[in-house]
Amino acid sequence: MIGAQEALARLRAGNERFVSEALGSEAITTPSRRRQVAVAQEPFAILLGCSDSRVPAEIIFDQGLGDLFVIRVAGNIVAPSQIDSVEFAADRYRTRLVVVLGHSTCGAILATLEELARPASEQSRNLRSIVDRVRPSIEPLLATEVAHDHATLVRHAVRANIRASVNQLRRGSRLLEQLIRSDGLLVVGAEYSLESGVVDFFEV
User: What is the mean pLDDT of residues 61-68?
Assistant: First the structure.
């Protein structure tokens, strides 16, 4: 089993390789690696990330087949199915690092801010399942100074949403709480910059 701190170091090193365009050979998908992971998997990190096409976890962390257990959903929100998936990997594969990965100018954040600015009668029912989960972390920001500048508001909203998802995973599952308390599970937040390619880990 790979411990949480070692797993975090691997992700940081992989992102550094990605940013510097010095990708490691271990990330190459080879026939031998494909055959190896067809038998069993031992992912060293669980990634709950956004579905955005520009944020593929394996690529930005320079990892290969079988390295990451990736759960993707718009806005990296936490709903029961996401909690179940994290529990599954943490329990079955003894993966001890969970990363909630958001990113700059997240479309789900922008959509939520747009919906909150509309009258309730004009809000989209199709977006509501996402908006309703993002809203609690963003709404308080609308009453602060950051709300006066849209770019600043979006930056703060992205971070607030990541923190909310981290807190939900830390406190929304009896199994995960137990693993955090007594078996070395670590849940952290991270933000990927679409512009620079750098992942900033926080809430570590």
Answer: 95
CA distance 101 to 194: 12
Neighbours of 38 (CB within 10 A): 10
What digits encode the pLDDT tens for the residues 130-185?
888 999 999 999 889 988 999 999 999 999 999 999 999 999 999 999 999 999 99
Model pTM score: 0.92
Q: Indicate the pairing of strand 199-202 with strand 186-192.
A: antiparallel
Contact residues for 86 (Cβ-Cβ < 8 A; gap 6+)? 46, 48, 71, 98, 169, 173, 176
Tell me how many domains the chain contains. 1
CATH number of the domain at 102, please.
3.40.1050.10
Report the C-alpha gap between 63 and 133 in whole angstroms: 30
Residue numbers of the domain that contains 104: 4-202
Residue with tokens 């920001």: 141
